Amino acid sequence: DTGVSQDPRHKITKRGQNVTFRCDPISEHNRLYWYRQTLGQGPEFLTYFQNEAQLEKSRLLSDRFSAERPKGSFSTLEIQRTEQGDSAMYLCASSLQRDSGGYTFGSGTRLTVV
Amino acid sequence: DAKTTQPPSMDCAEGRAANLPCNHSTISGNEYVYWYRQIHSQGPQYIIHGLKNNETNEMASLIITEDRKSSTLILPHATLRDTAVYYCIVQGYGNKLVFGAGTILRVKS
């Protein structure tokens, strides 16, 4: 297990299309987080899961966004009817609930909506 | 909102120590200080964290003032590969990370 994997690394889509991203966390990590980052800004929290339960969602997560972690392992983030403002880097991270240690982030999925 | 204040940018000469300051005057007793860095086009990388005591690992040292209102991340011998955005984050145990704008560290030869 080499870390957090995200797929795809890059996605270009036309406005109005739906896109789905996948995150595979470190296997023993029970917490999984999604963040969004635009150019020149720090990552912004979107949502997080503890096992399969989605425990918190940011107000940034509009109705067009949905995230799942069906078996408490990998997670998907779907954006419906994409808009140009959705263009960003989408980052996934995982951690252990019982550990004060840091998150491990993936390399992210860069979404460009044209 | 982020609970920390960092300078927007700093320069450091290659081979010298890089000292990155962070103010967190409203930190509460059960909150940790975390440092991450982000190299261009990659995800953030955990560096170090601490509660009250100074901490050291293979990457860096973290110095936390006695009143816990500020801290300094020290990279003892900066290299060009340490050029990155460095984020200082105050986080309660089990809470999510809230990132600010960070400090852009430029290491120059």
Can you put this structure into words, describing what you see?
The complex is a heterodimer of chains A (114) and B (109). Chain A has no helices and eleven strands. Chain A is mostly beta strands and 114 residues long. The model of chain A has no long low-confidence stretch (mean pLDDT 93). By secondary structure, chain B is mainly β. In chain B, 0% of the residues lie in helices and 48% in strands. Chain B has no helices and nine strands. In chain B, strand 3 (31-38) and strand 4 form a beta hairpin. The A-B interface holds A 4, 33, 35, 41-45, 48, 56, 91, 93, 97, 100-108 and B 2, 32, 34, 36, 42-47, 49, 85, 87, 93-94, 96-102.
Helicity range of chain A: under 10%
User: Tell me about the biggest sheet of chain B?
Assistant: 5 strands, mixed
Estimate percent helicity of chain B: under 10%
Helix-strand pattern of chain B, N to C?
Answer: EEEEEEEEE
Q: Which spans of chain A of ≥5 residues are poorly predicted at pLDDT below 50?
A: none
Termini of chain A, distance in Å?
Answer: 35 Å
Give the helices and strands of chain A as they follow along the chain: EEEEEEEEEEE
Assess the beta-strand content of chain A as a share of residues: over 45%
Count of DSSP H/I helices of chain B: 0
Strand tally of chain B is 9
Which regions of chain B are unreliable across 5 or more consecutive residues at pLDDT < 50? none
Q: Strand fraction band of chain B?
A: over 45%
Overall spatial form of chain A: globular
N- to C-terminal distance of chain B: 36 Å
Q: What is the molecular shape of chain B?
A: globular
| Arithmetic mean of pLDDT of chain A | 93
Mean pLDDT of chain B: 94
**Structural class estimated from helices and strands of chain B:** mainly beta
